[in-house]
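Thread amino acids onto this structure.
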C-alpha cells in the first residue's frame, strides 16, 4: 500500500496534539487533549507521564478513524516534547513518579550546590547553559537526595518525547536537541562528559543512547499497535524539543533565521552554525544536524492570556459565545481599542519565576500603574505588551554576541492574534512573518519523520514543500518610539522590585 501520510505527536505543557499530515504539510486530521499540571508549594510542577501515553493512544485512534485511512499508509512518526523534563523509568520502562516539568523549581538547593561544588563557569563552558533549578541535573540530584528509593530503582532518565518514542518502539533514546537540559552534556561535541557526570555522582548508565532528531530509533511494536490502532513496523524517529521542532516548522533552517514563540511559554530561537554561548540565554542543538539554537525562554507567553481567561474571562467567554467567537477573539477586540503602552499600565510576565534573561525563581507577575481609569481592556493589552517586552529583553541580550536579527517568524497560538503579533512587531522594531501552518510544532515533528524515512531528500526540500508565509507585520515607527520609553520602565521595574520578590515568593506568606 502506498505511503501518503506522516504522523506527528506534539507533547506541550498545556496540551497534547496528535496530527495526521500529508507530505505537503497539510493537516488531514488533528486531535487535541488538555493536560493537567499539578502545582504544589515549594516550586513543584508535575504531570502524569502515563496519562501522556493514554491521551496519545486515544488521539491516534481518533485521528485514524476520522481520516478513514489504513494505518499502513503512514510513512513515519515524529514526536516532539517540552524541555527539561525529569522522568525516571524502572527496568520495565514504567515511570517511577510523576514527571518534573520545566516549570518545576524545587531544586534550588541542588542548583546552588552545583555552582559551588563543581563551579558555575566550568559547567557553563561545557554545557553552554547557566546553572538553574529548572534544568534536569538539579532535579536528578534532588531525587537522589529526597527520594533515594526512586533514584535507586531508576533504569533510565528520559525526556518527554523520548518517553513516547519508547512507548511506541520499545527503544530508549535521547535526541541531541534535548541534551541541553544536562550540565554534563558537551554542547560543542554533542556527547556526554563522563568526568563531569562522575563528579556529580551520576552514572551515564542512566542515560539513553544519543540520536539525531530525524534518526529512526525503532518501529511501532505489536503492543503499541494494539494500544493505538497503528500498524506494527511503522518507523519512529527520535524527534526533539518542541521549541526546536516549532522552529523547523516555521521554516528556520539557515543561520541567522529566527523563530518567535507564542505557546504556553514565550521566547525566541536564533539558528547558529556554531555554539555561541551567553550566560543569560539558553543554547541547544537544533533538530537539524550540526546546527544550534540560541534561545530566550520565558515563562510568560500565551499562558498569560490563558491564565486571565481561566480566572477572570467570564465576560469574554460570554460575549464570545453570543457571537460565535472564542474568548480570545473578544480579547483581541478589547486590546485593539487601547493605545500602545496601555495608558501607563505595565505587566511583568513572571508568572512562575522567570527564565532568561534574568533567571530569578523569586520573580513574580506584577501589574504596575493600575488606577480607576483602567479597564479590563487595559489589563488584557498590558498582558500582551508584557510578553512583548520580555521578547525584546531576550533579543537585546542576544545582540551582546553581535547577533543581528531583522525578521522573526512567529508561531504558536499567540501568532493567530493579529493584534498581539503587531504589538510584538512594534515593541521589538522587527518585521514579523507568520507561517500559514497553524501547528508549526506538529509540522516540524512530521518533517523530522519525513526526512528520516526518505520522504524528503533533505530539510531544504522539506521546507520548500511544506512552509509558506500567511501574513507579514511591519513595525509602526511611531509605536516603536513610544514602546521604547515603556520598555525602559519595564526594565527598571524589575531592578527595583527584585529585592522584594523573595519576601512573597514562599507560598505567598511573607511574614511567617
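Threaded sequence (512 positions):
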Amino acid at each position: 500500500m502506498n505511503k501518503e501520510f506522516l504522523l506527528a505527536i506534539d507533547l506541550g505543557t498545556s496540551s497534547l496534539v496528535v496530527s495526521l499530515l500529508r507530505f505537503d504539510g497539510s493537516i488531514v486530521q488533528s486531535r487535541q487533549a488538555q493536560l493537567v499540571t499539578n502545582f504544589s508549594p515549594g516550586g513543584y510542577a508535575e504531570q502524569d507521564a502515563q496519562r501522556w501515553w493514554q491521551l496519545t493512544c486515544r488521539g491516534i485512534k481518533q485521528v485514524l478513524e476520522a481520516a478513514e485511512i489504513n494505518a499502513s499508509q503512514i510513512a513515519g512518526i515524529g514526536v516532539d516534547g517540552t524541555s527539561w523534563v525529569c522522568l525516571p523509568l524502572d527496568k520495565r520502562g514504567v515511570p517511577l513518579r510523576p514527571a518534573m516539568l520545566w516549570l518545576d523549581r524545587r531544586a534550588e538547593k541542588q542548583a546552588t550546590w552545583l555552582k559551588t561544588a563543581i563551579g558555575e563557569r566550568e559547567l557553563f563552558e561545557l554545557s553552554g547553559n547557566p546553572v538553574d533549578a529548572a534544568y534536569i541535573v538539579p532535579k536528578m540530584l534532588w531525587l537522589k537526595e529526597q527520594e533515594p528509593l526512586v533514584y535507586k530503582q531508576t533504569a533510565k532518565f528520559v525526556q518527554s518525547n523520548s518517553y513516547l518514542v519508547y512507548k511506541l518502539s520499545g527503544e530508549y533514546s535521547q535526541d541531541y536537541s534535548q541534551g541541553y537540559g544536562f550540565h554534563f552534556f558537551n554542547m560543542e561535541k554533542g556527547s556526554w562528559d563522563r568526568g563531569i557526570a562522575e563528579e556529580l555522582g551520576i552514572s551515564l548508565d542512566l542515560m539513553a543512547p544519543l540520536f539525531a532528531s530525524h534518526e529512526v530509533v525503532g518501529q511501532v511494536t505489536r503492543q503499541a499497535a494494539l494500544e493505538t490502532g497503528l500498524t506494527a513496523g511503522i518507523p519512529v524517529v527520535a524527534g526533539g524539543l518542541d521549541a526546536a521542532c516549532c522552529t523547523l516548522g516555521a521554516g528556520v533552517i539557515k543561520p541567522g533565521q529566527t523563530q518567535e514563540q507564542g505557546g504556553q511559554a514565550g521566547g525566541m530561537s536564533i539558528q547558529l552554525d556554531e555554539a555561541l554561548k551567553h550566560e543569560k540565554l539558553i543554547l541547544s542543538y537544533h533538530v537539524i544536524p550540526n546546527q544550534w539554537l540560541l534561545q530566550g525562554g520565558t515563562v510568560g507567553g500565551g499562558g498569560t492570556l490563558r491564565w486571565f481567561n481561566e480566572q477572570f474571562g467570564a465576560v469574554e467567554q460570554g460575549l464570545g459565545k453570543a457571537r460565535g467567537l472564542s474568548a480570545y477573539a473578544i480579547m483581541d477586540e478589547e486590546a485593539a481599542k487601547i493605545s500602545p503602552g496601555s495608558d501607563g499600565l505595565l505587566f511583568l510576565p513572571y508568572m512562575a519565576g522567570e527564565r532568561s534573561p534574568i533567571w530569578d525563581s523569586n520573580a513574580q507577575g506584577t501589574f504596575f500603574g493600575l488606577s480607576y481609569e483602567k479597564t479590563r481592556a487595559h489589563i488584557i493589552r498590558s498582558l500582551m505588551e508584557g510578553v512583548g517586552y520580555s521578547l525584546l529583553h531576550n533579543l537585546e541580550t542576544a545582540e551582546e554576541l553581535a547577533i543581528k536579527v531583522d525578521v522573526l517568524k512567529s508561531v504558536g497560538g499567540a501568532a493567530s492574534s493579529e493584534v498581539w503579533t503587531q504589538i510584538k512587531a512594534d515593541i521589538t522594531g522587527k518585521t514579523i512573518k507568520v507561517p500559514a501552518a497553524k501547528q508549526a510544532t506538529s509540522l516540524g515533528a512530521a518533517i523530522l519523520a519525513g526526512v528520516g524515512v526518505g520522504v524528503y531528500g533533505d530539510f531544504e526540500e522539506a521546507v520548500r514543500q511544506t512552509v509558506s508565509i500567511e501574513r507579514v507585520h511591519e513595525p509602526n515607527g511611531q509605536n516603536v518610539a513610544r514602546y521604547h520609553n515603556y520598555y525602559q520602565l519595564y526594565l527598571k521595574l524589575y531592578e527595583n522590585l527584585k529585592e522584594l520578590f523573595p519576601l512573597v515568593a514562599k507560598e505567598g506568606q511573607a511574614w511567617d
